[in-house]
């Protein structure tokens, strides 16, 4: 499997991301800490109803200097 895919902008999006589907609201924030292990792609969707928790955790990680927003791919879907 490819490690990443090259977008038309030249950016390289990781082919494997942390999915938040079926993640309980009380633990999805903890899962987002996977960025400390090297994840740079977080996958969300409005219908998962946990984007707020994902966003709050990412905001905290940005404020703590763990990772920069520009170093992450945060994807979502419209259904």
UniProtKB/TrEMBL annotation:
An example molecular function term from Gene Ontology annotations: oxidoreductase activity
The segment(s) forming the NADP-dependent oxidoreductase domain are: 23-77
**Which InterPro entries does the record associate with it?**
AKR, Aldo/ket_reductase_CS, NAD(P)_OxRdtase_dom_sf, NADP_OxRdtase_dom
What Pfam families would the database entry show?
Aldo_ket_red (PF00248)
Classification via PANTHER family: ALDO/KETO REDUCTASE (PTHR11732)
Name it: NADP-dependent oxidoreductase domain-containing protein
Name its species: Oryza meyeriana var. granulata
């Amino acid at each position: 499997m490819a490690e990443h895919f090259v977008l038309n902008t030249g950016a390289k999006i990781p082919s494997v991301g942390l999915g938040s589907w079926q993640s309980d609201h009380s633990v999805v924030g903890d899962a987002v800490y996977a960025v400390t292990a090297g994840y740079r792609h977080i996958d969300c969707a409005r219908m998962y109803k946990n984007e707020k928790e994902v966003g709050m955790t990412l905001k905290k990680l940005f404020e703590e200097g763990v990772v920069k927003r520009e170093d992450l791919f945060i994807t979502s879907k419209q259904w």
